[in-house]
Design brief:
The protein is mainly α. It is built from 19 helices and eight strands. The strands form three sheets. A three-stranded parallel sheet has the order 1-2-3, sandwiched between helices. Strands 4-5-8 form a three-stranded parallel sheet, covered by helices on one side. It has a two-stranded antiparallel sheet with strand order 6-7. It is an enzyme of class 5 (isomerase).
Length: about 475
């Protein structure tokens, strides 16, 4: 069967609304991509590393692809996950597995993203199937041998204007230094301190020692810990970072007294902290991160309430971040109140909460963003960065917070070639939502044109402080 993405894909079915959506989409279709939160390894750009093969590019790093196959009996190792050595034949076989099971992705955004990638960037014109797997693999492999398909060339071809990676607080950021010296694109680090803010971790005392070494600050006290965090945040900011990223079981920001924080901190260093005390200290640490953001101006993104590594055997075999994380219900109003009470009116603070619990959009996040000058709503992310969820999101938040208090699209991906396809989905869905308001005579066309430009370009520039 021929592969031919429809030009009106994802637009409303109603002819009048679809026509308006086409016109609005045309205004932003080719707008530069702003990607302020993602997981592309910086060394790919720093060293312009050629992509090895179609599987390591399109399958192995993409959790969305892998988890669906795993659910249908495919071992992650067969897809290259956790494999230091993966032969060409193994790579080809992984691609055959994907194509033979292409029917599993019907109705999912994976199908949309992958078909866009295959059609637009690798000139594939046949639908993935068991019969076409080798043909598609060979065509992609041939393209990957061309220097035009190296990371830096694709960065330009994808029209990426800004790309942020995700980095450990103790990272030297040497790859980012090389990028700044040798590449004219904008690629910046993001400060991700999660594991340093989890005092119950078995390796937390060792992490504190590493933080001390990286910062040059003694971390054997609560005050020293916060000073070390401030030091590393400043280091990242000097290297071009614009934001910090945080993902914990809850978004709590309840501040402890210095004496209580010190007591629990010392217990954690001695590996004697209780789970309840560890959670309390982590929430106080998060309060301090908000306070630091209000002082140093780094944008603070929060991605809470995920049950990490839900399947213990998979975690034990492959490690973290291989697709077995499960969303949890969450609550923001009470969790963020302590920090927002003290810092919510700070001109320096931009706080962007993301969630996979759609119930909080209209109940909590939209009212918060509709009041606090510091709060912007993170758009649908991870499990819900899909067409139906994106449309529900716009309906849930716009009536209370308007069009200007959301973050702009976040691709949140390690799968480099999926970045433009993911942004295209968002642009099409937003065009359809705004078109509906025009068709219902709730917006004039000139207002709709301004709105779609804000959603695609103005919002990420505003929320992530990219005006300069």
């Amino acid at each position: 069967m021929e592969l031919q993405p429809h030009p009106d894909r994802l637009f409303p079915a109603d002819p009048t609304t679809r026509s308006i959506a086409r016109d609005l989409y045309a205004l932003v279709k080719d707008a530069p991509i702003i990607s302020p939160h993602g997981h592309v390894p910086p060394e790919w750009i720093a060293d312009d590393v050629p992509f090895k093969d179609p599987t390591s590019l399109l399958i192995t790093p993409d959790h969305y692809v892998n988890r669906m196959l795993h659910a249908h009996g495919v071992e992650l190792s067969e897809l290259g996950v956790g494999q230091k050595e993966f032969s060409e034949e193994q790579s080809r076989n992984a691609f055959r597995i994907l194509c033979a099971n292409w029917w599993l992705y019907r109705g999912t955004p994976v199908k949309y993203w992958m078909e866009n990638e295959l059609f637009d960037y690798f000139e594939v014109r046949v639908r993935p199937s068991a019969e076409t797997a080798d043909q598609i693999y060979d065509q992609i492999a041939e393209r990957l041998a061309d220097p035009a398909y190296r990371p830096r060339a694709l960065y330009k071809r994808f029209n990426i204007q800004f790309l942020a990676t995700t980095d450990d607080p103790c990272d030297s950021l040497e790859h980012h230094a090389k990028i700044r010296q040798t590449f004219d694109g904008t690629v910046v680090p993001t400060f991700r301190p999660d594991k340093y803010l989890e005092p119950a971790r078995a390796d937390w005392p060792e992490l504190m020692a590493a933080l001390s070494e990286a910062s040059g600050v003694d971390t054997t006290s609560w005050a020293g810990f916060n000073a070390a965090m401030e030091n590393r945040r400043a280091y990242f900011k000097a290297a071009g970072a614009i934001s910090t990223d945080h993902s914990h079981r809850d978004p709590g920001t309840a501040r402890l007294s210095d004496a209580e924080a010190e007591r629990i901190y010392q217990q954690a260093l001695a590996r004697k902290v209780s789970p309840a005390d560890a959670d309390a200290l982590r929430r106080s640490m998060m309060y301090e991160q908000v306070r630091m953001a209000s002082e140093d101006g780094l944008v603070m993104t929060m991605h809470p309430s995920v049950y990490r590594n839900h399947h213990t055997p998979t975690f034990n075999k492959y490690g973290a971040d291989v697709g077995c994380d499960i969303p949890l219900k969450t609550e923001f109003a009470a969790a963020l109140q302590p920090a927002l009470a003290d810092c919510g009116d700070s001109e320096n603070l931009h706080l962007i909460p993301f969630t996979m619990d759609e119930t909080v959009y209209s109940r909590e996040l939209a009212p918060m963003a509709g009041f606090y000058r510091s709060v912007f709503i993170g758009v649908p992310w991870w499990f819900i960065d899909a067409p139906e969820a994106m449309a529900r999101f716009r309906g849930a938040v716009t009536e209370t917070a308007g069009f200007t208090r959301t973050s702009g699209f976040i691709d949140d991906t390690r799968a480099f070639c999926s970045i433009p396809a993911r942004h295209d989905v968002s642009r099409r869905i937003d065009a359809g939502y705004v078109a509906k308001l025009v068709a219902e005579h709730r917006l004039e066309m000139d207002e709709a044109e301004e709105a779609i430009r804000e959603l695609v370009v103005g919002n990420p520039v505003r929320a992530f402080k990219l005006e300069g």
